[in-house]
Amino acid sequence: MGFFDKLRKAFGGSAPTQPQGDPNAIWLYLRCSRCGTPFRVRVDRRNDLSREDGPGVFLLRKQAMDNKCFQLIEVEIWFDANYAIVSSDVQGGTLLTEEEYKAAQAQ
Ligand SMILES: [Zn+2]
To answer: Residue 38: what pLDDT?
Structure first.
């Protein structure tokens, strides 16, 4: 149990969870190339994607940071109309699949 879970329990309040389902979220799984930390970043379909001409339909440009060495990771990803990744360019890190992310966390 994490610290914040204990805190929530102590105060008897309900946890501030995300809305059920979170339909606009796309989770990106990244690994920092400097310290190797796997982490995930939430992308909002409505706010973070822009419709542009290119290899895909939607373009995401985002800066991400792991919580260990705080290296800035520049992410540029093209999505198709179904929000599947068409191509990706990650500076300072690598893109993981959800399975790779979970495997890396389990280590
Ligand atoms: Zn790092």
So the answer is: 97
